[in-house]
Amino acid sequence: MKLTVKLEDGFIPDKYAKYASQEYRTSNMPTVNFPITISEIPTGTKSLTVSLIDYDAVPVTGFPWIHWLAANLPVDSIPENLSETGLGVSGMNSTWHNVQKGGELPNPKINQAYIGPMPPDKTHDYTLTIFALDTVLDLQNGFFLNELRTKSKNHILAMEILELPARA
Questions:
Q1: Closest Cα to residue 20, out of 116, 104, 111?
Q2: φ, ψ for residue 149, nearest 5 deg
Q3: Which of 16, 64, 71, 161 sits at 20 to 30 Å (Cα–Cα) from 148?
Q4: Domain hosting residue 94, numbered range
Q5: How confident is the prediction along the chain (168 residues), in pLDDT tens digits per residue?
Q6: SS3 annotation, 12-35
């Protein structure tokens, strides 16, 4: 399986990250994902999953920051602004952690969506992982990463990882 993400000057394009314009934001967070082209998908693939995790966030937050989880996606590509297409199901990103601490009500347009990179201290590398699965997973909107991992077990036909830098 091969993934293609168009970068600008070697970085995730600004419109999908920290410097996104207002039209690409919800509650001042970048919430429009970059498109992903996928080729050489294994025969028998029924769905794709995506995760975008910032492991460089550990020194800042104390844990890897989940920016995006989605499952049961179409088998050929992941379009820009996936959440607006109605395709697949969306998992919880790490913003729910701040909501829990602050006592706010969850907002699915933020907590169950792509939240673009916003590295606070330096350029971070974001780990994009796509799995090709031989099934459609029994997941509902709001699933967590551990549930995605557990339900994907024994259904993975292929996996591909890209490290994508975003500027601070």
A1: 116
A2: -65, -45
A3: 16
A4: 2-166
A5: 999 999 999 999 999 999 999 999 998 899 999 999 999 999 999 999 999 999 999 999 999 999 999 999 999 889 999 999 999 999 999 997 665 555 666 788 899 999 999 999 999 999 999 999 999 999 999 999 999 999 999 999 999 999 999 999
A6: CCHHHCCCCCHHHEECCEECCCCC
Give one word for 86, left, alpha or beta, with left for phi > 0 and alpha for psi -120 to 50: left
pTM for the model = 0.95
CATH number at residue 154: 3.90.280.10
Phi, psi values for residue 63, rounded to 5°: -155, 160
- Residue type at position 141: N
The answer to whether 52 touches 31, Cβ cutoff 8 Å, is: no
Number of domains present in the structure of the chain = 1
